[in-house]
Amino acid sequence: MKRLVILGGGTAGTMVANKLRAALGTHELHITVVDRDDAHNYQPGYLFMPFGIYNTSDIVRSRHRFIDDGIELVLTEIGTVDPASRTVHLADGRLLAYDVLVIATGVSPRPDATPGMNGKLWGSSIHEFYSLPGAQALTEAMRRFRGGRLVVHITEMPIKCPVAPMEFTFLADDWLRKHRIRERTEVTYVTPLDGAFTKPVASRELATALVDREIALETDFAVEHIDNDTSELVSFDGRRIGFDLLVTVPLNMGADYIARSGLGDELNLVPCDQHTMRSLAHPEIHVLGDAGTLQTSKAGSVAHFAVDVFVHNFLDEFNGRPATHGFDGHANCFIESGNGKGMLLDFNYTTEPFTGDFPLPVVGPFKLLKETRLNHIGKLAFRWIYWNLLLPGRPIPLIPTAMSLAGKRMEKDVTAAGTGMPTAVALSSPPPPPRPATRPAPEPRPETTPLATTDQVLPTPIIPKF
Length: 466
Known about the structure:
This protein is an alpha/beta fold. The chain has helices at about 10-25, 55-60, 65, 130-145, 165-180, 200-210, 255-260, 300-320, 375-390, 415-420, and strands at about 1-5, 30-35, 40, 60, 70-75, 80, 85-90, 95, 100-105, 105-110, 125, 150-155, 185-190, 215-220, 225, 230-235, 240, 245-250, 250-255, 285, 330-340, 340-345, 355-360, 365-370, 425.
């Protein structure tokens, strides 16, 4: 009997365990899931907590509730992984042997990685919403906020759910207006990117939304430290941005056991094949969810689609057939834009987000990169889909694993000039000099040949800065 060990009982880990348990009997495959505790958090819900839309009880459930019968759930910390002996060393001293290992422990915010971020202002005027305690503390901070300088800041890419900081900015603008304090609040969006988003068409639409809301945009901002005495973000090039309330996205890093095991890069992310999610160094290890180096968004939809590909390949190899499925980098993300509306992105490695209709041409019913009430409803409905369809491993109607071009309005000239991107409201800072590196460059990674599907060879992915 084969032994599958899954490290991480979050979105990806739970899905793959349940899908494989449904496909193979307990006499064929022993499945073990390891996580630190029994609390499964609906992480997209963190975004809504500061605005009173969700509370803790809406987004926290028991892991046991979503792990199917016939799956062993072990609740403890992970010590190290020894690929040579194919053994996981748990913090409580137990050892787990495996034939196949899935790493699905995601990423987490690390405010300690930026000088001054977790200083004396942390938890008072500096907050984050990428963890449950962070979202809870920010909820209280928003209730106390009476106006001033609200700064939403991204430390560095990649981060999980890369549109979430933009969503928070839109929701904050709407919340401030409803509480009649928008006119005495200066809102600034600060990003290390060279625009509101990474791709020209999406940047055009999102920059327009910032302009419409009179939200200032500061780009190419590589934070060097946070000055707790003057309440300012300070960049490597000397720019300073003051704040009364700073909502930051700290550096996102993988789990510490990955570093202890020598499996990851400088961010504790495991280098993996872009189409099979197989570790480049250890073929018996696969990386699902946010824990790897897939060059697409770290989002629940990516975990969903990548798990589908992994399960197909796992079952093929289990039954003695060659693995022929390949992941195309498909991501599908709703964007809350405030005032009861939302947008939708749908893209993959080689096709950037475009405007159009989804999932069906003309019919939709969702609109791509356009603010609609239905997109907002879709975002809120996803919580029910997550608990009742996604985690149990049930199919979601009309949402294909591979991205479809159907309904998309393809634009030939997707340069900044060709898309006619507007100029967002800017701060008075001078143009920044070339941006310095904030961390050592990673070691060169070995290249792998993209996996061929039964009817095509997937192209080499375009690497975005998500």
